[in-house]
Each structure stands twice: as C-alpha cells, then as structure tokens.
Amino acid sequence: MGCNFSKKTQDSSELPPPSSESESGSGSHLIPDLTTYEAECRTDPDLRSFDSTVQQSTSRVINTLAVNFGSLTLDSLRIVSESLLETNQEVVTLILKSQEDIWKNKELLSLVEDYFESSLQTLDFCTALGRCLKRVRDTQLIIHLALKHFEEEAETKNYLKTLQDLKDFKAAGNPFSEEFLLLFQSVYRRQETLFRKLQIKKIKLDKKLKSVKGWRKLSNAIFLATFASVLICSVVAAAIAAPPVVTALAAAAAVPLGSMGKWFNSIWKKFENELKGQGEMLNTMQLGTFIAITDLDSIRVLVDKLEIEIEALLQNAIFAIREEDAAVMLAVEEIKKKLSGFVQSIEDLSEHSDKCSRDIRLARKVVPGWNLERNLGKSNLEIFLARFNPGPLLAIYGAGEQGLQSCCSKSMSHYDHANEVS
C-alpha cells in the first residue's frame, strides 16, 4: 500500500497550521523520522501490514469525528477507544513475536557464572598439581642423595645407604594419586562442556544479530503507534473545541514528535552495541576456555611422560633392592641415564602448571572489567590481548576478531576429532 499512513500525515502537515507555534518548525522534525519509517515500511511486509491496520483505524476515527465535529458522542468515544486499543494490540503482537528480554540476559549471566566456577575448579587443580610436583621434587632429592651415597660407597662396595635411599624412593611411590587423576578428568570435562555452551550461545547471538531487521520493525511499530495515538488524541481535543476537522488534522501533524524517532533509533543502536559487546565477551571466555583446555592437554601429556619416567626409575630401584650389592652398580648407571630426562620433565610440568594458573587468573580479570573498559571505548578483544597475550595461538589463526573466532572454531573441531578417535 506504500505506507499510506505516513504519506497522508505528511500531506496534511502541508495545510495551514492553526497557530504560530506550529510555524516554529516543530513539524519539520517529524518528517525525517517518517521518511525513515516509510523506507523501512517499503521493505518489510509485516510493518506494511501494521501500517495498513493503524491507517485504517485512524482514518475511521477521524472520519467519525469529522461528521460529529463540535460535539463528542458516546459512539465517537467508543470508536476512539477501540482504535487506541487496536493500535496497542498490534504493538503487543509484534512484541510477542520478539519474546526475548533484550536488557536482562540471564543465559549470558549464567554462562559467566559457569566460567568463573570452572576457572576456580581449574585453579584448585593447579594447586593439587603443585602438591604432586612437590612430592616429585622430594623423590628427585632422594635419587640425588642415593647417587651421592653411591659415589661415597663405591670404594668399599658396601651400598647400605644407597640401598636405603632406593627403598625410600620406592616407598614414596607414584606422586600422582587416583584422586588427582579424577580431579583432572573432572576439570577437563567441565572446561569442554563450558566451551561447547559458549559456542552454542555465540551461534545464537550471531543469529540474533542477523535479525536486526526484526528489532527495527518493532521500534518503528512503536513509533508509529505512538504517533497514531497522539494524532487521535489531538483530533479529539480539536473536535471538543469545534474547529474544522482539517485544522485539527494540521494541528495533529504539527505535534513535535521529531525526537521520538531519534529516541527509538538510539535505543536500537544501544541494543545492537550490547549484542556486539556480548559477542566480544563470549569470544573472550571462549578463547580463555580454549587456552585452559590446551594447558590441561599439555599437563596431561607431561604427567603421563613423568609417570613413565618415575616407573622406569622405580623398576631400577626395585632391581637394585632385590639383587642388592651385585646389581646396585648396574641400577645406578641406568638411573643416571634417565635422571636428566626425569628432571627436565619435572621442570616442563612445573612451567605448564604455572602457565595454566597464570592464564586462568588473567582471564578472570578480563571478564569482570568488560563493562567498565567497554565504556572507556575499548573492545573486549583489545582488553584480552593486552592482558592475556595469547600470541602463539593468534599467530597461528591470525590477529583480530576474525582470528579469534577462527581460533575458537578450529579448536572445537580439534576436540570433536579427538573425541571421535578416542
């Protein structure tokens, strides 16, 4: 229909205004907003339908009042009331089509809470790993002491102290308890679950950003409904004073609603920025979770390697203890060969444990500062890169938002493939 309501209203505004106040230009602020609305209306069938309904309802009110100008009958008031209710109902219908609350995102809040709980659990794991590493270093000291005693007892070939040290090493056993391994599995599963939740939420958010047209439709509908309501009320007021209906329409068209369209546009812009900000925060949490999972993967590999080396040293110690003096020299020589690898594995694991803990703590600082630093004009990605410095990962996938998303999507495919293999 070509947005009849907006066209007719603009035509009526060209009529002589009833007062000098309307000549001051208040109506001129309205025309650009209606022009914007008209452009949206041409491309949106739902908005065209809404426009048609409001236009017919408003026309019915104006025609009724035109017949009975100078007085308001009960029938006229009934038609006015019905028109306002119909207009409001049309807006409600459009709102119900957009059922989500755009200002209070409980799902995102829940994800942030999950992120912090998951990171706390990971920090607990790092603490447990630190205790295991302390026990490993204690066994390392026992081995060094055994080697020292072996050198001292080499001349007499009486290896009592050396054998006692090896027995102490054997008694220390595997520093990585079953409880530690269960904690690791729990932390790893939780991080993976959180990563998938973040990915699903990001997909939903991307779809929501693609549906910005629907939100613009809603804001335009509210704008039109407000304009129609004010127009109807203005006509009613003019009819009470009994001027010609044409003059009443001109007065209604001159109502200063110019700021209304700008207000809705500002609301929409704020919401769009909010969605983009949420996307940035999800990207940050997703990358932080991915880095935590990567750190855990490295730790798992190093723990497995260290356990193998500890087992090899234990076997040599058991051999020396069982065979006593005759086998001590052979066992100690094997221990010497494996010792450097054992020490290096301890250092590697300790370094990765510190890195995991450091990454988690830094990530926990980034997310709470999201709102504050966004208000200072920084994107969440900039905040993350400034504090987190995930250089090696972004060097692989590329810098910037695209690299960040690529990093996250690639990582998810890696996990899917790993799960299929396992």
Automatic annotation (TrEMBL):
Region (Disordered): 1-29
Signal peptide, first to last residue: none
One of the record's GO cellular component terms: membrane
Pfam family, one: DUF677
Coiled coil: 296-323
Record keywords: Coiled coil, Membrane, Transmembrane, Transmembrane helix
Superkingdom in the source lineage: Eukaryota
Spans through the membrane: 218-240, 246-264
Localization: Membrane
PANTHER family in the record: UPF0496 PLANT-LIKE PROTEIN, UPF0496 PROTEIN 3-RELATED
Record-stated family: Belongs to the UPF0496 family.
Protein name from the UniProt record: Uncharacterized protein
Species of provenance: Escallonia herrerae
